[in-house]
TrEMBL record:
This is Beta-galactosidase. The active site is at residues 157, 238. It comes from Enterococcus phoeniculicola ATCC BAA-412. Residues 505-563 form the Beta-galactosidase galactose-binding domain. It is an enzyme of class 3 (hydrolase). The keyword Transmembrane does not apply. GO terms for biological process: carbohydrate metabolic process. Its EC number is 3.2.1.23. Belongs to the glycosyl hydrolase 35 family. It catalyses: Hydrolysis of terminal non-reducing beta-D-galactose residues in beta-D-galactosides. Coiled coil: none annotated. One of its GO terms (molecular function) is beta-galactosidase activity.
Length: 593
C-alpha cells in the first residue's frame, strides 16, 4: 500500500523524496493542451504538478456543480498526470487568489449574509456543501488509495488575510471527512504571516511563498517550525518565476539568469513548486483585480506570467536554464514540439449589429423601481445595460451615477455623453434633452473583474453594476429596465448582422475558413474595448490601452471549415477587420493610471 510521511523530508513509500514541481492551472488551458503541458513538465525534470481548484469555476451559480463539462473535468487532468508518473499537489481551498476573479470565491456569496473566509457558520455551510461534492471526486486519487495526489492545501495565504483559527479548524474538519493524505498551509515567509496562517491542527505543516531572498525566507520558515516544534520538509509552495500584468502598465519580465540562480539556491535547500510553469489565459471574464490604495487595477486576459512556458506553450530561455538545474546537466529523453502557429487570412465580414437595437435579443430583462446590482440580478460577470425614460425636452444640469463598478458608459438617446471609470464614477454631468418627450438615458456598466487579494475582498465595490442609483438634479430617478447581457444568446443565432457600420457598442460577425487548425493570435490593434467569441467560446477581453494587443486563440477552439467569430466592442471604433498573426502583439503603454 502506498504511504507518504512528513518528516524532515517527504518519505514516499519509504524513500526520502524532494518534490520538484510546476504549477499548471487546468482552468487556464484548453483541455486538449493539458497533456502537452504535463509532457513539458516531465521534460523540465519535475516529478510533481500543482494546481489550484477554483470554487467559482465548479459552482459558478449556486447549487449548480460542474465537474465534467468541457475544461472542468479535474479527474481527467489528475489521471493524465498519473499516466506520466507525476505526483500531484492539489489546492482546493475555498479561496485561491491566483489573480483569478474574486480569488476563486463564487459571486453569489455577495448575495448572502455571511463573512467570507471566516468561521461564520453561514459561510462554512456553503463551503461544506461544495466540499461534499468536490472531495469525494478527489478521494480515489489520493496516494493512499493508489492515486497520484500526495498533498492538499488547507487555505491559501490566510496569514495575509486573517487569523481566525476556528475557521482553519473547520476547514480541516471538512477536509478530513474525505482526505487522509498530508495537508499543508502556504503563506508569505515572514513571522507574522506564518503565525496568522498556521493551522491549530498539529498534522498540518507550513510552506512558504516567495521568489527571491531564498536563504532568508527559508531560514524564516525553519525558525517558525522550530519555534512550534513542527517537523516537516522546507518547501517553497510558490516560487514566483515571473509576475502577472495589468491593463495600462508595461509587461513585467524577470531576468532568466537571475531566476536560474535563485531556483538553484532553492533546489539545494529543499522542495519547490514553480509558480507558474505555464500560466495560460484568463478566458471569458475570469481575470482578477489588484487593489492598490483606493485604486482597483484589473489584470489582463493573458496570464503568461513570464513563466517557463509562454501563455501559448512555447519554451523560453527560462525553461532551458532551469532544465539544466533540475536535470543536473543531463539531457531530457524527449522533446515535445511547440504548437504550430498560423496567420489565417480567409476571413469574411458578415455584418454588424447594434447593441441598443438588439438588447432584448441578447439579454435577460428585468424591470424594477430602482437600479439593481449585478448580484441582485443573479448575474456574475460581464455587462449590464440600464435604461429609463427621463422625460421631456430640457437642460439637465446635474446627473450623477452613485456607487457603480467598474466602468460606466452613459448615453442619451443613443448618443454617448461620457465614459466614467473608477475615480470618475459619481462626478457630475450635464446635457440637453432634445426630444419633446420620452428622452432615454442608457448606461452600459461593465464588471472588469473582482479583487482577488487583500482586505478589499470585503469591499462594497466587489458588488458590480449600480449599487446606489442615478441622480437627476437632487433626486434619485426611478423606473428602470435592466438588460443582463447573455453571451450564450449572442452566439446562438439571435442576432441579424445586417449593418455595415454602427456607432456605439455593437457586435461584428466574421466567418473564418480554416483548412487545418493551428494556434493563432487575433490582432486587436485599432479596436477599443470588448471581447471575442470564437464558435461561442469567450476568449476574453481586449482593450486599446495595452500592454497586449492580441488575444491568443488555441487550435482546439477552431474546426476545419467555417468558424464563427463575433467581436463585441463597446467604444464604437471597431475597424471592421479581423486580422491574425503568427506571433503575439504588444502595445506600448504611454501612461500609467
Amino acid at each position: 500500500m502506498n504511504s507518504i510521511k512528513v518528516n524532515k523530508e517527504f518519505v514516499i513509500n519509504g524513500e526520502n523524496t524532494k518534490l520538484v514541481s510546476g504549477a499548471v492551472h487546468y482552468f487556464r488551458l484548453v483541455e486538449e493542451y493539458w497533456e502537452y503541458a504535463l509532457d513539458r513538465l516531465v521534460e523540465l525534470g519535475c516529478n510533481t504538478v500543482e494546481t489550484y481548484i477554483p470554487w467559482n469555476y465548479h459552482e459558478t451559480n449556486e447549487g449548480d456543480f460542474d465537474f465534467h463539462s468541457y475544461g472542468h473535468n479535474i479527474e481527467t487532468f489528475i489521471q493524465q498526470a498519473a499516466d506520466r508518473n507525476l505526483f500531484v499537489i492539489l489546492r482546493p481551498s475555498p479561496y485561491i487568489c491566483a489573480e483569478w476573479e474574486f480569488g476563486g470565491l463564487p459571486f453569489w456569496l455577495l448575495n448572502k449574509t455571511c463573512k467570507i473566509r471566516s468561521s461564520d457558520p453561514a459561510f462554512l455551510t456553503y463551503v461544506e456543501r461544495y466540499f461534499d461534492k468536490l472531495l469525494p471526486i478527489l478521494k480515489p486519487f489520493q496516494w493512499s488509495a493508489g492515486g497520484p495526489v500526495i498533498l492538499m492545501q488547507l487555505e491559501n495565504e490566510y496569514g495575509s488575510y486573517g487569523n481566525d483559527k476556528t475557521y482553519l479548524q473547520e476547514i480541516y474538519r471538512i477536509m478530513r471527512k474525505y482526505i487522509d493524505i498530508p495537508i499543508f498551509t502556504s503563506d508569505g515567509a515572514w513571522q507574522e504571516a506564518l503565525e496568522a496562517g498556521a493551522s491549530p491542527n498539529k498534522d498540518v505543516f507550513p510552506t512558504g511563498n516567495f521568489g527571491s531572498r531564498v536563504t532568508e525566507n527559508i531560514q524564516n520558515l525553519a525558525r517558525f517550525m522550530d519555534k512550534h516544534g513542527i517537523e516537516a520538509p522546507l518547501m517553497c509552495m510558490e516560487f514566483w518565476d515571473g509576475w502577472f500584468n495589468r491593463w495600462n502598465e508595461p509587461i513585467i519580465r524577470r531576468d532568466p539568469i537571475e531566476l536560474r540562480n535563485a531556483v538553484k539556491e532553492m533546489y539545494e535547500l529543499g522542495s519547490l513548486n514553480l509558480y507558474m510553469f505555464q500560466g495560460g489565459t484568463n478566458f471569458g471574464f475570469m481575470n482578477g483585480c489588484s487593489a492598490r490604495g483606493t485604486s482597483d487595477l484589473h489584470q489582463i486576459t493573458s496570464y503568461d506570467y513570464d513563466a517557463l512556458l509562454t501563455e501559448w506553450g512555447d519554451t523560453t530561455p527560462k525553461f532551458e536554464l532551469i532544465q539544466e538545474v533540475f536535470l543536473e546537466g543531463k539531457k531530457s529523453e524527449k522533446t515535445t514540439e511547440n504548437h504550430r502557429k498560423v496567420r489565417f487570412s480567409n476571413v469574411t465580414f458578415v455584418g454588424a449589429a447594434s447593441l441598443s437595437e438588439n438588447l432584448e435579443k441578447v439579454s435577460t430583462v428585468v424591470q424594477n423601481t430602482w437600479p439593481l446590482s449585478m448580484e441582485e440580478l443573479d448575474q456574475g460577470y460581464g455587462y449590464i445595460v440600464y435604461k429609463s425614460d427621463i422625460g421631456e425636452k430640457r437642460r439637465v444640469e446635474r446627473v450623477r451615477v452613485i456607487e457603480a463598478s467598474d466602468r460606466v458608459k452613459i448615453y442619451v438617446n443613443n448618443e454617448e455623453v461620457a465614459t466614467q471609470y473608477k475615480k470618475e464614477i459619481g462626478s457630475e454631468l450635464s446635457f440637453n434633452l432634445e426630444k419633446e418627450t420620452h428622452n432615454e438615458l442608457m448606461l452600459l456598466v461593465e464588471n472588469m473583474g473582482r479583487v482577488n487579494y487583500g482586505s478589499k475582498l470585503l469591499a462594497p465595490t466587489q458588488r458590480k453594476g449600480i449599487r446606489g442609483g442615478v441622480m437627476l438634479d437632487l433626486h434619485f430617478h426611478s423606473n428602470w429596465l435592466h438588460y443582463s447581457l447573455d453571451f450564450d444568446k449572442i452566439s446562438n443565432g439571435n442576432l441579424t448582422f445586417n449593418q455595415e457600420k454602427i456607432n456605439g457598442p455593437g457586435f461584428y460577425k466574421f466567418e473564418v475558413f480554416v483548412e487545418e487548425t493551428a494556434d493563432t493570435f487575433i490582432d486587436c490593434r485599432g479596436w477599443g474595448k470588448g471581447c471575442v467569441l470564437v464558435n461561442g467560446f469567450n476568449l476574453g477581453r481586449f482593450w486599446e490601452v495595452g500592454p497586449t494587443g492580441y488575444l491568443y486563440l488555441p487550435a482546439p477552439l477552431l474546426k476545419k471549415g467555417l468558424n464563427e467569430m463575433i467581436v463585441f466592442e463597446t467604444e464604437g471604433i471597431f475597424t471592421n477587420q479581423l486580422l491574425f498573426s503568427e506571433v503575439p502583439i504588444y502595445i506600448n503603454v504611454k501612461k500609467k493610471e
